[in-house]
Amino acid sequence: MKRSWNPRIWAGFILCLAALISYPTFFVRFPITRDFPWVNLLLIAFALFLLVTGVLHAFRHPDAYRGKIFGSILGVLSVFLVGFFLYGIFVLTKNIPASHGAPQIGQLAPDFTLPDSTGNSVTLSSLLQSPFSASLQPAAGTASAKTAAVVLVFYRGYW
Fold first, then answer.
1. What is the pTM of this model?
2. Number of other residues whose CB lies within 10 A of the CB of residue 23
3. Domain ranges of the chain
4. How far, CA to CA in Å, does 129 sit from each of 87, 114, 122?
5. Using CA atoms, how far apart are residues 114 and 112, in angstroms rounded to an integer?
6. What are the C-alpha distances in Å from 63 to residues 10, 48, 51, 67, 69?
7. pLDDT tens digits for 50-89?
8. What is the Cα–Cα distance from 103 to 85, expressed in whole angstroms?
9. Which stretches of 26-156 are DSSP H helices?
10. What is the residue-averaged pLDDT of the chain?
11. How far apart are CA 41 and CA 36, in angstroms?
């Protein structure tokens, strides 16, 4: 009797690779899948299910299916890759070192120069020292010109 290839082993291994590669290339773009990789975990679980059932078929029916040795190798390789992925996602991302040089809450920001929306250079100190324009002051007669305040907004994400 001619033995056939075990499609579950190959489908499980390919799905495992697709789940591991799709997170940094595609799913990291969306906050719903970036913050917790639930889609990738579902794909990994299904891939490991296919691998385990494929290897079990190969060992239970060696006369019908090939893949006892190669399926075992692909299974071990997949488990290693999944372990590396899970370690990177759940352990390494939580061990980001603290930024000791970052300003703390309530601390004055250091002076810096950045381009504005029109491309002109703007420094923080010049913004803090510039008075409000007359069009921005309230209609009720205010005394002298007041100095401006600056709000710094930091966005998390990719540009």
1. 0.61
2. 20
3. 7-94
4. 49, 16, 12
5. 7
6. 18, 24, 19, 11, 14
7. 999 988 888 888 777 777 888 888 889 999 999 999 999 9
8. 33
9. 31-34, 38-60, 68-90, 124-129
10. 82
11. 9
